[in-house]
Amino acid sequence: MNRTILVNVNLEGNYNHNLNEAFEQVRQAVDEQNAQGYKVVSVTPLTGSDSSFDYDNSENQSYGYGYGISFTTGIILIFEEVAEE
């Protein structure tokens, strides 16, 4: 039997603080499931993105720029029950 846990994170803002918090949430979930006889079989990141652009066009010149970023918004952990020997 498998168990699935979603760890909600948002690494878009304060990256270092949120990364440490996400790590702690994953560690806690793994420790809890290990104590109940489950092992990790899959870790899948959930990602989001954002973008921005600007441009200007006048008689003598024009310019434009744009950029995009991606960030982790969550982590899916799938656990499998360890068979007793």
Task: Characterise the protein shown here.
7% of the residues are buried. This protein is of the alpha+beta class. It has one domain. The protein has a three-stranded antiparallel sheet, with helices on one face. It is rod-shaped and about 80 Å long.
Quick overview:
The chain contains 1 helix and 3 strands. It is α+β, with helices and mostly antiparallel strands.
Number of strands: 3
Radius of gyration equals: 21 Å
Strand order of the largest sheet: 1-3-2
Approximate strand percentage: over 45%
**Poorly predicted runs:** none
Overall geometry: rod-shaped
The count of helical stretches stands at 1
**Chain-averaged pLDDT:** 85
Helical residues, percent? 10-25%
Q: What order do the SSEs take from the amino end to the carboxyl end, as H and E?
A: EHEE
Largest sheet descriptor? 3 strands, antiparallel
Structural class: alpha+beta
Structural domain count: 1
User: How far apart lie the N and C ends?
Assistant: 16 Å
Features:
85 residues; alpha+beta; 3 strands; rod-shaped
Give the SSE layout.
Blueprint: E1 2-8, H1 15-35, E2 38-57, E3 62-81
Antiparallel strand pairs: 1-3, 2-3
